[in-house]
Design brief:
By secondary structure, the chain is mainly beta. The protein has one domain: 3 Solenoid (UDP N-Acetylglucosamine Acyltransferase, domain 1). It has three helices and 20 strands. The strands form three sheets. Strands 1, 3, 4, 6, 8, 10, 13, 15, 16 and 18 form a ten-stranded parallel β-sheet that branches. It has an eight-stranded mixed β-sheet with strand order 2-5-7-9-14-17-19-20, with no helix packed on it. A two-stranded antiparallel sheet has the order 11-12. The longest helix has 7 residues. It is globular. The model has no long low-confidence stretch (mean pLDDT about 95).
């Protein structure tokens, strides 16, 4: 049955550094420097996503439609984390001070890139339309409300929102119990017909 996701055979031909089982990648997603991208098990990447650079994705991760990951430094998305539609993650950025020229068509000696790794730890959920700037660690269990700007590291098991993102309240840890259930039970049975052998 033809779907909007790559088949197992097509996944093999993409050139990913590595990938696990039950990986669903939309045929409408775009990859750059794909040989630097690793994907775990039970991962879904939806339409119109762009993944570029050094990116490691854990297991049970959903990257929703229109999300952009620019991993020039590196981006790590750990198990049970997710990005809602239209998020943008930068691990490097041009210097906008006016001291340097900006853009990929400019000779490197006239540019100044700033940045550092971005890490989304386990159980992190980022709301729709968020922007994450370079050199940020989003610690375990954090949830961020839609349209937020994340420019500094966030403390574990907290809910944040705003521009810039500010602490709202602590987050429940019940998901820790749920994630101990067997993988077969945690997986949505609706997607069984899409699973690759």
């Amino acid at each position: 049955m033809e779907t909007s996701f790559y088949s197992e055979e097509q996944l093999k031909g993409l050139g990913l550094k590595e990938y696990g089982h039950h990986v669903l990648i939309s045929r409408k997603a775009s990859f750059y420097y794909i040989e630097n991208i690793s994907i775990g098990n039970h991962v879904r990447i939806d339409d119109f996503c762009i993944l570029s650079g050094n990116i490691q994705i854990g297991s049970f991760v959903h990257i929703s439609a229109g999300t952009l990951l620019y991993g020039q430094s590196s981006i790590s998305i750990n198990d049970y984390a997710g990005l809602s539609p239209h998020c943008v993650v930068f691990s490097a950025s041009d210097d906008f001070s006016g001291e340097y020229l900006i853009g990929p068509l400019i000779n490197q000696k006239y540019r100044h890139l700033v940045g550092g790794p971005v890490i989304l730890n386990r159980y992190v959920q980022i709301g729709a339309g968020c922007v994450i700037l370079p050199n940020v660690i989003i610690n375990e269990g954090v949830a961020v409300g839609s349209m937020s700007l994340i420019k500094k590291s966030l403390k574990e098991w907290s809910i944040y929102a705003g521009i810039p993102a500010k602490f709202i309240k602590t987050r429940s840890k019940k998901i820790l119990e749920i994630s101990k259930i067997s993988n077969d039970d945690v997986c949505n049975p609706m997607y069984n017909f899409l699973k690759h052998k």
